[in-house]
Amino acid sequence: MAASRHGAGPTRGSAMNVLSLDNPVFVTYMIAAAIMILKIMGQGWMTVFRMLKSDGGFVSPEDLRPGAINRNPRPEQLELNDYVDRSRRMHRNDLENIPAFFACGLLFVIASPSILVANALMYTFVVARLLHTLAYATKQSHEVRATLYTIGSVAVIIMAIYVLAAAIA
Amino acid sequence: MAASRHGAGPTRGSAMNVLSLDNPVFVTYMIAAAIMILKIMGQGWMTVFRMLKSDGGFVSPEDLRPGAINRNPRPEQLELNDYVDRSRRMHRNDLENIPAFFACGLLFVIASPSILVANALMYTFVVARLLHTLAYATKQSHEVRATLYTIGSVAVIIMAIYVLAAAIA
Amino acid sequence: MAASRHGAGPTRGSAMNVLSLDNPVFVTYMIAAAIMILKIMGQGWMTVFRMLKSDGGFVSPEDLRPGAINRNPRPEQLELNDYVDRSRRMHRNDLENIPAFFACGLLFVIASPSILVANALMYTFVVARLLHTLAYATKQSHEVRATLYTIGSVAVIIMAIYVLAAAIA
């Protein structure tokens, strides 16, 4: 009975060991996803750092109350501040790409790609997103950002098509 | 020993084959999630397309540098452009709904709903979100958008309550 | 053969029962994630409620068409309305934190933490995010919000580092 429940063929492999540290494709996903999680959370801290450093870029009226964060409140602290807003735009760009990768990468693992393809697509995504962050933070030209955005986006799109094809096959 | 480790009853089924292509409920989730992943990524490309087509709607000061994307820089390219901003609002609306679906749908699969219920809720969500996109892009009245938003949102809420009930039962 | 495929040791446990209701750590994740899913979706409904209550805070020009939602259209309904925008900011803050938790928590479960550590980190995240929402809605000082944001963010960061360490070990 164990054989009949577990003996799925290679194309329709059982999930039993797929989502575990025994599966190198899953380990790749774990590493890529963990780095991207730290990237998203770190972006929030870049916004915090930039708000404190520039003593402005706040978005809520109550942030003009005096306190440990704001010792010298002034109305202009609520004005748009590119230094701080840039970090928020970077965050938004992350959110437009990375949560889709989280879901897509997990399903891609279950769709059983080769380890070479999985490493190529997932680490390409991670490197493209980290370089996109660097390009955005250092105000590189639109073309640089666009290229890195494209690379990351295409990696996710390829994985999503692979997942869809595996599911409807 | 295999039996004792795998022999969970129907209400507390083992996860071993739940997250695999052998489980029709999971296949539904794979298809629904993959379509939604392509939806999110495609929305980014709609924004890119609209920026290029309208030659404006940029959000970063450095985008006014001359280059392949911007051959004729002008300050008004940084002004709010409803054609481009609409795509960003559509993207934001996606992000307020779809990542929660990714997590919720996966947990819903593990909570072992019937295939009929799973198909109904997941495909309802997918269709409602695609029609919401269409309604937003074609500037339908607020009531149309609100109705489609409601349908998608309620589908996720029902799944989340089902998951919570299964977990605390 | 079943033994050889399933007999992984405690540090590299098989995934077969990890993502099931038999695993208390996974049940904690299910409960935490389901609450956070309801939180995200509920935030959308708070925005809807506040738009209807204040009869404004709209963001699309077509929302000025007369209809069931807007019986008395006026141009100022498109102006920034802090009561409504606050709910959108709360939503954005959720999106900057919660989808990363969805991915991180799932991987954390597979990385096999103790139930005590999992409960502590996951429920700390949930409580911190719910209190952050309460603090934001009631216009508490920036310091209060910042403290609750920090607690939730650090919980996710600790889980992500644990996942990364498990994957590269």
What does the model show?
The structure is a homotrimer of 169-residue chains. Chain A has 169 residues and is mainly α. The first copy, chain A, contains six helices and no strands. In chain A, α2 packs parallel to α5. The two termini of chain A are 27 Å apart. The N terminus of chain A is likely disordered. The interface between A and B is large, with 45 and 43 residues.
Largest sheet of chain A: none
Q: How many beta-strand segments of chain A? A: 0
Which secondary-structure class do the elements of chain A indicate?
mainly alpha
SSE arrangement of chain A, N to C:
HHHHHH
Terminus-to-terminus distance of chain A: 27 Å
Which two chains form the greatest contact, residue counts included? A-B, 45 and 43 residues
- Rounded radius of gyration of chain A (Å): 21 Å
The geometry of chain A reads as elongated
Oligomer: homotrimer
β-strand percent of chain A reads under 5%
Q: Helical content of chain A, roughly?
A: 55-70%
Uncertain runs of chain A: 1-16
What is the residue-mean pLDDT of chain A, rounded to a whole number? 91
Number of helix segments of chain A?
Answer: 6
